[in-house]
Structure prediction request, 617 residues.
Amino acid sequence: MKSAIDRIPRTIYGIGASPGIIIGRLRLLGRRKGQRHVHAHLDLIRIGAEAARFRAAVDRAEAQLRTARQQFAEQLAGYTAIIDSHLLMLRDRMIFDRTLAAIEQQGIDAEWALEKALNETRVAFAAIDDSYLRARVHDVEQVVERIFRQLDDQGEVEGAGTGEKVVLVARDFAPEEILRMQTGQVLGFVTEQGGATSHSAIVARSLGITSVVGAAEITQVAATGDLIVVDGGTGLLHLHPTQDQLDYYREYQQQYQRYSEEVAAYTHLAAETIDGLAVRVEANIGKAEEAALAVEYGAGGIGLCRSEYCYLDRATVPDEEELFDLYRELLVRLSPFPVTIRTLDAGGDKFPASLRWASEMNPALGLRAIRFSLREPAIFIAQLRALFRAGVYGRLRIMFPMITSLCEVRRIKALIDSVQADLRREGVPFAEQVPVGIMIEVPSAVSVADVLAREVDFFSIGTNDLIQYALAIDRGNEQVAHMYEPLHPAVLRMIRQVVEAGHAAGIPVAMCGEMAGDLAVLPVLLGLGLDELSMHPYAIPYVKRMIRQSTAEESERLAAEVLACSSTQEVHDCLNRCLPARYPEEFGQRGLRQLKGSCCSVVMNGVSPPAADGGRC
Prediction:
């Protein structure tokens, strides 16, 4: 039983991953950070049974993963490679063999043996020189945590089994575990690890599951059954809330519900400012099946279709005819809206089993995206042929990822000329005039944007990678995720440079990264002159509403003020000062207290919530 001192109200600061307000009891999954299992030495007669218990736990964990892979095949299209790697790790000698050896040779229980194996693996990873590979120990820890849950008989990620919906709290959740929350008694979740652009945060936002990530203290101070308030917009957590806090957040929940209902009315309205500036608001999708969701939420087209998902969950590379059928279906479904399909963007953290991948010290800087396509022309040409053939069925735009130089663009254009010539000679119908654009997501492309703009029909800024490369931040590494900063002056100036280069050449400039759907940044993006913003469909009504409350003139003044800032803190201070007065229902007096790292935050009006620890900002 917890002592009275353990129930002292406590405010914990995390990163708002997916907006919403939750008041409920929590369920703690897995072990607390730093928690030690009560070690036990075994009698000889029990060693065989303990080894069998460990094997059974691994079997159950493996069955969970395989079931999730099959059950959520469509929703997990971008994450099947992660699941496959976790399946392999379950049986890897570093964990599986070492744990069994410790049980059988040292006569210790499974939890102790697994803990020893994990610690030895951490030591091995820590000795790796390459920082990217060193950070992959996080995947091993996720796999081991899954086994621990089975050994503790915690089973699936679901509710408490009592009929009461709960807030799940753990060190981290894998993508398929978050999908399973849709079918369980789950209000939302909190993790100790992760950042605003971690896999768990992105999946939560795509599903509309309220969540906070990066709450470093949570597993150390929380226990199953504790009452907690979760603010997914600001990242604030109130453990053992006071009555004043409960009253405030219950009122806040009602305001949030009213606000969400009001926002729904903007779904199919034009994205146009008060003084007549029109901005195209589009959707990011992965498959044709998601087209209906984009239309439902008022998308004016598809600003980013991630074509690599067609390659991920399969043993062989899709051929031209299969790709043609997929692209044609998507274009027909979205007609008459434009559809921007990005060519294969594999590598980095997406490794299709159907493609051949050499081991690399740093995949994020290796053979990925357009580099892979140009290295494998047969695969690339099959995709280009399918795209141009499908183009006769709708308004197709083709976009190429991770462009770094003019040379790459000219090689792509030469291949396009060759593909079109072959189709023409074969008498195969195809779209002759398809707009061709590139993603600006590396600093070198920003530097030569004026040159690149003369060669293409449009730009699309991929902020997820641009921020990562510009700031030298691995956005999947929780050690530095807090430094992933969309409002860094360098990032804002890069965006301005790309927009100016595009407009000088007479081409539109879009943005398709997570930043495009962040309400805290939206007025600045309007002021910078972005022509198109593409985001997850759920964010579209919120973005449209805010655009329709804005004026181009005010947004331009705000952008100029922000661009004059010399530090990220100055940018935050500027927005804290300007946005609450201009957009009271989105920000109000609460301002942007958790602006840093609060990607896609949607907050409401009202006074600052009562704080149990002095209200640190």
